[in-house]
Amino acid sequence: MATNINRCISIGILYNMRMSRIEMRNQKRRDVVEAIVNRKEPIHVVARVFNVPQRTVFEWLSWFRAEGWDGLNEKQRSGRPRKLSGAQIQWVYDAITLGNPQHFNFEFCLWTLKVLRELIRSRLKVELSTSSLSRLLRNPQCQATSLSCPLIPYLKSLGGDRSE
User: Fold this and answer.
1) What's the confidence (pLDDT) of residue 52?
2) How far apart, in Å, are the Cα atoms of 84 and each of 67, 89, 145?
3) What confidence tens digit (pLDDT) does each residue in 35-76 have?
4) What are the distances in angstroms from CA 125 to CA 83, 88, 112, 119, 122?
């Protein structure tokens, strides 16, 4: 029994880090069900090894019994669609990090939420609230888009950069 638990642990640890989150969740569901159905592992052991509640394991098993292996794949999620696509977010990121507002015919060379909102409205034809834009910039994928990032050389020239 100990070797089976070790096998489950090694499977849980060896997920390919290049997989998308959806693929990782699908693979975890398949691994859990495979351990129970094919290897006849006890449900409580598999749930503990994969750090999944037993109730969730039972739900995955019912999906498997109803639809087979394809039933374990993630379905379309409900919810509000994003206003900006990945390509549009990349464009905003490039606009902030590679340029300043004067490149886009704005009066000042300081990125503010108001200036960014106007840029997105004029170029991408998407209306975002200030709070939505702020939330977008706080997103871990956009951490490099800190609004102060393009200003660091300017602050250093003035002697106002205290980050060092």
Assistant:
1) 95
2) 34, 6, 16
3) 999 999 999 999 999 999 999 999 999 999 999 999 999 888
4) 10, 11, 18, 9, 6
Rg (CA), the chain: 24
Residue 128 in tokens = 């975002």
pTM over 0.85: no
Find the angle CA(49)-CA(51)-CA(55) to the nearest 5 degrees.
105
As to burial, measured by CB atoms within 10 angstroms (0-12 exposed, 13-18 middle, 19+ buried), residue 11 is middle
Q: What DSSP string runs through 112-139?
A: -HHHHHHHIIIII-----HHHHHHHHHS
Instruction: Quote the tokens at residue 79.
Output: 């919810």
Amino acid letter, 115: V
Domain ranges of the chain: 2-72, 86-158
Residue 15: Cβ within 10 Å count: 13
CA dist 101 → 14, 30, 158 (Å): 46, 49, 20
Lowest-pLDDT range, 25-29, 41-45, 135-139, 155-159?
155-159
Six token digits for residue 105: 């015919």
Contact indicator for 58, 42 with CB cutoff of 8 Å? no
* Both tokens assigned to 22: 């959806």
